[in-house]
Amino acid sequence: MSRPTFQLPVVARAFLTLPHTATLTTLRPDGTPHVTPVRFTFDAATGLVRVTTRAGARKARNVEAGGPAARVALCQADGFRWITLEGRAAVTDAPARLAEAVRRYTVRYRADPPAPLDLVVVEIAVDRVLSLNL
Question: Angle 62-58-122 (CA atoms, 0-180°, nearest 5)?
């Protein structure tokens, strides 16, 4: 998955390190949106968002059904401050990628993520950023 290089303002990068939840919007096979709260991490150096979940979760199934063109949006809000990260998404269970997702989650949220037997990571290559009051 290729990732564009872009620079977020320092305040936006700082906002994305706060231990908030966000909403992840994926598209169901019928084209309707599925919105769910998630915890996530953002790697500013690569523009990659990571969301751990179960392989059988609707969000993972939606991304897989969308194939290489699957687009998603993740929005973190705090009052009237918000940022939305959009991009192409893919699901992987590669051990090294899962380990990195778990490591980053643990640092951000100061707790291990849930560890179901079918743990996967949704990786989002961010190519569009929208925000307000950051």
Answer: 65
What percent helix, strand, coil does the chain show, rounded to 5?
A: 25, 40, 35
User: Which SS3 state, helix, strand or coil, does residue 114 take?
Assistant: coil
Give the predicted TM-score (pTM) of the model. Answer: 0.93
- DSSP-assigned beta bridge partners for residue 124: 49, 89
How far, in Å, CA of 43 to CA of 36, rounded? Answer: 21
Residue 134's nearest CA partner among 26, 1, 37, 15 is 15
**Cα 41 → chain centroid:** 7
pLDDT, one tens digit per residue, over 68-101 is 999 999 999 999 999 999 999 999 999 999 999 9
CA distance 53 to 83: 22
C-beta of residue 91 within 8 angstroms of C-beta of residue 64: yes
Which has the closest alpha carbon to 24: 78, 75, 80? 75
The Cα angle at residue 40 between residues 6 and 54, in degrees rounded to 5: 130
